Amino acid sequence: MSSLLLAAVLGTSAPNLPPLPRLPLDTYESSVRAPIEEALRAAQAQPRDAERSGRLGMVLYANEQYEFAAACFERAAGLAPSEARWPYFLGRTQSNLATEDRGIAALRTTLRLQSDYLPAQVLLAKALAEAGQTAEGRQLYETILRAHPDAAEAHYGLGKLDGVAGRGDAAIEHLRRACELWPSFGAAHFALARAYRDRGEADKAQAELELYEKDKLGWPAVPDPFMSALTALKGGAAARLDKGVQLAEAGQLQAAAEEHEAALVADPKLLLAHVNLIRIYGTLGRSDKAEEHYRAGLALDPNLAELHYNHGVVLLNEGRSAEAAEAFSRAVELKPTYADAQNNYAYLLMSSGKLDEAAEHYRAAIAARPDLRAAHFNLGRILVNQGRLAEAIEQLGQTLEPDDEEAPRCTYALGAAYARAGNRDQALKYMSQAREKAVTRGQADLVASIDKDLRRLRETGGR
After folding, report:
1. Total structural domains in the chain?
2. Using CA of residue 266, residue 272, residue 276, residue 278, what is the dihedral sign?
3. Global pTM value
């Protein structure tokens, strides 16, 4: 059975029972195709066996074939209506497919069959909250905490609900408890930072943001026997690549490199793995390995802009500016809407004194991504240098948000541009704001520079 679309056997006369899916087997890589095809054949051999239909769904889910998996889980649930696993898997699958109503219904069924299954309770409470059914979501979170007071996810969920409802103190209490229970809970640290910021506690907010940056993807590990059995089926190059990407985002670069290399063992032509490994090895200081994967990527597709861009980043970090400029130039030639490449190329042009050409590429970066702060800032600097102050002020005015570590410098630059333009009032306004922001963040050197300019403005009237 190797045709592109493998026909399924209905095997039942039940009108509401979905058939086994028709799968595009010939589009799957061999390491993924083999277990899927084996599970499909088993399900077709005994189409009224819920376990076999469900097993096919599990294999499909493990390989991110969610739409096909949903049909299998729905079929298994219909064939074995007293088994809690199948509606639970269906609820998770519908959540991945962003079909919240169907996911909620499936999870309700799970809890009717196994009312104390904590992972289903947490998932349903989250789904209810996200669907706007906040009262029921809150009630379920509170039910969870009565039975499991150490459930960090439930505290996190209640903290988010309290924050939306304007109950800041209650939100902080729950979010802080979530972080105490699971110190690497990245999302909870981020939410707690926002809650502290809204209450005006900038130092505490900054501390929580730093914890979030250390482990952005950290999440409580709630025992889930159903999902453990499912994830054990995950394999293939795509799965290893996905895991490698998640590890890289979490800052676990050596483990990320190992997963990417394993993906390439499974599929040597997986170009994205080479692209990612250039950056990963560059960050790890392994320029030899970064170069190796750049060359391997070129052999597969020399016209991929991301390949040249990542190589350029590695070269730039090594101080090889001329070579980096060539790489970024090639990237923007292949993909003119590549904002990061345009921005980096413009920066190198600006650094070498080619201001007109740099401005052209900064404008291209902004056209591709209007919120690219660095491009607005540096274009503004070029325009100030060229005496085009009204245009400079317009560009620098786009850099004031977000209110982060870069905000004082950006606000200061805008004030300085107004001073150059002879607008003393606006210059004093933005420089004073910049000073306040810099003081709050402990940026002493910047405060000293701003103070010097403020004294000159006040003493000379800006002349």
Report:
1. 2
2. positive
3. 0.56
